[in-house]
Amino acid sequence: PVQDFLLRMRRKGVSVLLVHHAGKGGQQRGTSRREDVLDTVIALRRPADYEAVEGARFEIHIEKSRGVMGDKLAPFEAKLEVCNSAVVWSRKSLADVEKTRVAELVADGLTVREIAAELGVSVGKAHKLKKKTEAAESVK
User: Fold this and answer.
1) CB environment 43-63: b (16+ within 10 A), e (fewer)
2) What are the residue ranges of helices labelled H in 1-140?
3) What secondary structure letter does DSSP report for 29?
4) Could you give the count of Cα atoms lying within 13 Å of 34 in the half-sphere of its Cβ?
5) How many CA atoms lie within 13 A of 11 on its CB side?
6) Given a cut of 90, is residue 77 above it in pLDDT?
7) CA 42-46-47 angle, 5° bins
8) CB-based contact 41:63 (threshold 8 Å)
9) pLDDT score, position 29
10) Whole-prediction pTM value?
């Protein structure tokens, strides 16, 4: 019935926003069939280094998108901040956030395995990120 409703709304040119929570594993709960008729699926995720005192800071991942491709779908981090008494959203690409975090961890003397554990990535990816960070530092 929900899919029929969504399809009727699409035919009428009406946008519908559905909000659904993730299960313990971070993926949606239940069947993936509910996404079949959706044009866009967005997942909000907590950054690995998030602390509650930061307030609204999260990663945005576009998991499904009809009609949009390429760099526009790259995941990014959004953060609500107060600047000059105004509340504004800031945005950073996850690649930039990751580079900054790896540079911090390398400066702190962490090993590749420790960096991988901290970032929640494979040891191979952590090694590549560390090499890129060290190469960028040597150019400066």
Assistant:
1) beeebeeeeeeeeebbbeeee
2) 2-12, 94-107, 112-119, 123-139
3) S
4) 11
5) 6
6) yes
7) 115
8) yes
9) 67
10) 0.71
